[in-house]
TrEMBL record:
Domain Band: 35-196
Recorded coiled-coil stretches: 195-247
Gene3D superfamilies recorded: Band 7 domain (3.30.479.30)
InterPro entries, A to Z: Band_7, Band_7/SPFH_dom_sf, Prohibitin
GO biological process: proteolysis
Nucleotide-binding found in the keyword field: no
Keywords: Coiled coil, Hydrolase, Protease
Name of the protein in its database record: Membrane protease subunit, stomatin/prohibitin
Record's keyword annotation contains Protease: yes
Length: 278
């Protein structure tokens, strides 16, 4: 090869090498720049890990700087979450009760780094679900099966209080708890149904008895009123009143008489037939 051509190729090679080096440096700087910032979305918090260790700082919503390749950020949702499950427990009178419980809770935003350090992100199955089961069993055992139904709001309030204390230990806040259903055994349901039928029959019998008693009292009072009326009338009867009633009766008889005498009468003195005599 001609030595002149080789000499001419050296500057071109050096120029190409310089461009490649510049490109690599620019690419590295771009990657470093992009890796130096992190965005925390709404309803989230950022847990900073520096070489695997949890930092005490918690990143709020927005844009943040982090040390490239040294720090990592774990995004954690701090909005309200729901956990619903069926919990089986024994009541005070040893009835098996299946309770459907819906729980709303959220993480303490400023303590998510401690939760991550102590529990991790699987806090639902590790903490929340077992805590719900334990709270339901503890409170259900304090009431009979019938009381669980009649005192539903009280039972729910006690479960909420017990569960809130358990979740607070792991930096979680209980928002609300709803008991959507109580399920009992078929034998217990049949017993409740028979009891309700018996209570309805007893109520009907009691109402009938009250009605009979009221009617009897009404008849007694009516009889008393009639007796009192007769007593008052008897007190008012005098000889003059009797004669007056007799005269009134005779007057009514005369008013009804058609002017004809009877043809025959029983007795010693016969009546004369006036018509035949005429």
């Amino acid at each position: 090869m001609d030595s002149g051509k080789v000499i001419n190729m050296v500057p071109k090679f050096k120029m190409s090498k310089g461009l490649i080096t510049f490109g690599l440096v620019a690419l590295i700087l771009l990657i470093v720049t992009l890796n130096a910032f992190v965005i925390i979305n709404a309803g989230q918090r950022g847990i900073v890990l520096q070489l695997g260790a949890v930092r005490p700082v918690v990143l709020t919503e927005g844009l943040h700087f982090k040390i490239p390749f040294i720090q990592d950020v774990v995004h954690v949702d701090v909005r309200v979450q729901k956990s619903q499950s069926d919990q089986t427990a024994a009541s005070k009178d040893l009835q098996i009760v299946t309770t459907t419980v819906a729980v709303n809770f959220h993480l303490e935003p400023n303590q998510v780094n401690k939760l991550y350090q102590n529990v991790g992100l699987a806090y639902g199955e590790r903490i929340v679900d077992p805590a719900i089961g334990e709270a339901v069993k503890a409170i259900t055992a304090q009431y009979t099966a019938e009381e669980l139904i009649s005192k539903r709001s009280e039972v729910s309030a006690k479960i909420k209080e017990t569960l809130a204390l358990k979740l607070a230990t792991y930096y979680m806040i209980l928002d609300e708890i709803n008991i959507t259903e109580f399920k009992f055994s078929e034998e217990f349901n049949n017993a409740i149904e028979q009891k309700q039928i018996a209570e309805q029959q007893a109520l009907k019998a009691n109402l009938d008895l009250q009605r009979i008693e009221i009617e009897a009292k009404q008849k007694i009072e009516q009889a008393k009123a009639e007796a009192e009326s007769l007593r008052l009338q008897k007190q008012e009867v005098t000889t003059e009143l009797v004669k007056l009633r007799e005269i009134e009766a005779q007057i009514k008889a005369i008013e009804k008489w058609d002017g004809k005498l009877p043809n025959v009468t029983g007795g010693a003195v016969p009546f004369v037939d006036v018509n035949s005599a005429q």
